[in-house]
Design brief:
The chain contains 13 helices and eight strands. An eight-stranded parallel β-sheet has the order 6-5-4-3-2-1-8-7. Helix 5 runs parallel beside helix 6, helix 8 packs parallel to helix 9 and helix 12 crosses helix 13. It is globular. It starts with a helix and ends with a helix. It binds dihydroflavine-adenine dinucleotide (FDA).
């Protein structure tokens, strides 16, 4: 119930206006977001890479209905990738892109615009010597996103995709995307989805995650289990061993600000850990999804508000 309310609020302009105008929001979002602009994102990225972790940077933004905003997002990624190249961080850091931020929902030819814009970002990544992963948004976008990924992979075979275990279709998508060289980030899924397309209970989502993980780990691709769940992390480790996958044949991923000690433990044990690092001014939707995931995150937010007001 609370999760549904927070996820509904994540797409409500009225709720957004209220939360964005709370006085201490910047200090509070800092736990999950690496600042408003490129310099702060680069500083945090540098720290994470120096600690042995890998990074995927996300320039925050989603659901744009404005072509000039989509073009500005592409430019922000081009600047980011040029900075990664210049500082030598491109060996440890890639980028994550939401197609809805680069035009997928634009009324006239949105899908083609998103494809062209994502291609420009892939070209900049190739020039920097790094990779791109396409984030996955709500279920209405999955066919379009996977279609764009297939087209881009003809030229950029290293392009990663995200699959969400909570969708009924995803086990089959995992089979389609488990081929050689295919980079797949497997997450549970963060959007409010109807029972017609997605498992609704934590138990069912967790079981689906395990099934999907088994398909990816048994395949020929490069699985990227993205979860903070100790049971999923342990199971990924066991499956990797069972399929003789060594460090470098798969990687763990977590979100910035969540279980940093566990991130470090995985690195200390010789695993590859990539941290999803968002930055930029459009933090609202991302931040609300994090609050919806875990009551403790909401408590943290409310406590911080109380101590600052
Ligand atoms: P879940 O939220 O079920 O938590 C399970 C357990 O993990 C908890 O019981 C607890 O033990 C532990 N845990 C979780 N949070 C914790 C915390 N703050 N502190 C301590 N322990 C904690 N989603 C999407 O729809 N599209 C996308 O493109 C992406 N991309 C993405 C990238 C990366 C790198 C990650 C890690 C996640 C995503 N997600 C996503 C989000 C994802 O779908 C999901 O909502 C969150 O990761 C939360 O799910 P968990 O698997 O962590 O488990």
């Amino acid at each position: 119930m609370l999760r549904s309310t927070l996820l509904a609020a994540s797409r409500s302009p009225r709720a957004r206006a209220v939360v964005e105008n709370l006085p201490p929001t910047r200090a509070i979002t800092k736990r999950f977001v690496a600042g408003d602009a490129l310099p702060s994102a680069m500083a945090v990225c540098n720290e994470l890479v120096a600690s042995g972790r890998h990074v995927t940077l996300d320039h925050l933004g989603e659901d744009t209905l404005d072509a000039s905003q989509a073009a500005a997002t592409v430019q922000a990624y081009e600047k980011l990738l040029a900075a990664l190249k210049k500082t030598g961080l491109a060996t440890g850091a890639e980028v994550s892109v939401k197609l809805s931020a680069v035009g997928q929902f634009l009324p006239a030819g949105g899908e083609k615009i998103a494809l062209d814009n994502a291609r420009r970002i892939c070209e900049a990544a190739a020039d920097a010597g790094t990779t791109v992963t396409l984030d996955m948004e709500d279920h209405t976008t999955v066919d379009s996103t996977l279609g764009i990924a297939r087209e881009l992979r003809a030229d950029f075979p290293w392009l990663g995709v995200v699959l969400q275990a909570y969708l009924h279709r995803t086990e089959a998508d995992c089979r389609d995307f488990a081929g050689a060289g295919s980079r797949v980030r497997l997450c549970k899924g963060a959007y409010k989805e109807p029972a017609s397309v997605a498992f609704q209970t934590k138990h069912d989502v967790d079981e689906a995650y395990v099934r999907c993980l088994e398909v990816l780990m048994a395949g020929d691709g490069y699985p990227m289990p993205a979860s903070h769940d100790p049971r999923m992390i342990a199971h990924a480790g066991r499956l990797a061993e069972c399929h003789s996958r060594k460090n470098g044949d798969f990687e763990y991923q977590m979100l910035y600000g969540i279980r940093p000690e566990e991130q470090q433990r995985i690195v200390a044990d010789g695993g590859t850990m990539r941290v999803y690092l968002p930055y930029g001014q459009e933090w609202y939707g991302y931040f609300m999804r994090r609050l919806a995931e875990r009551p403790a995150n909401l408590t943290f937010f409310l406590r911080a508000l109380a101590t600052r007001s």
